[in-house]
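hiii, so i know i said id send this last week but things got crazy w the move. better late than never?? heres the sequnce for the chain we talked about at the cafe, plus the structure i predicted for it. fair warning i was half asleep when i ran it
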Amino acid sequence: MKHHATDAHTLTAAYALGALEDDERKDFEAHLQACEACRQEAVEFGATAARLAAAASQAPPAEAKAQVMAAIDGVRQLPPRVPAPAAAPALGGFLRRRALSLALAAGVVAAALGGVAVWQTRNGQDLEQQARQARQQLDAVSAVLAAPDARTVHGRAANGALTTVVASDRQNKAVFTAANLPAPGAGRTYQLWLDHDGTMRPAGLIDHDGTVILAGDPSDAGAVGLTLEPTGGSPRPTTAPLLLMALPA
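okay and structure toks below
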């Protein structure tokens, strides 16, 4: 999908995620030379994407390498991959953006589930379920980040955590990312809230650095809240908010 020059300010997320066509990328990089706001947003989106991957990744088990090496001799070699014919130019932008969520999901799932071939005979169903969940989450998150109308805002919670919210009206979703989030402590968890004209509605849980899709409808919410609650969450806040940050306008 091509964008007109007047849409340049909406391309920061797609640029940070490598989702622009070559000509779009060159035009946008020229735009960045004269637009401080877009330069800052591109950096922020890039940092958010990096935190997404880091939050979802896990170190493989120590014994995975030995088992992989032991299993190599019995693995059937696959034929070489032949690139598929290039899509028609009119579809190039659309397909590249559609492939973005799959590429992000595949990269993060591969990092999170290293050694899947070795472990699937033992825990095949569990791994498939984890892969599906991770892929669904990454698809949802990347769709918000790459949305043409994605908007971002940054904040700092009272406990020092750095927070980012990216919202998209087209997707009707918002993504929350936390970094440097202190451990909540035994029997506690952090809970997210959407502020609807002073009424706080539960929007999900987060107990460590990472990224989540906010539950609920952000379209008529004014702010995102963060509180410390008992494990499992609460129907309404039971502690003073650590963060109450206006949703990006």
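btw The CA atoms of residues 6 and 247 lie 24 Å apart. thought thatd interest u
miss u guys!!
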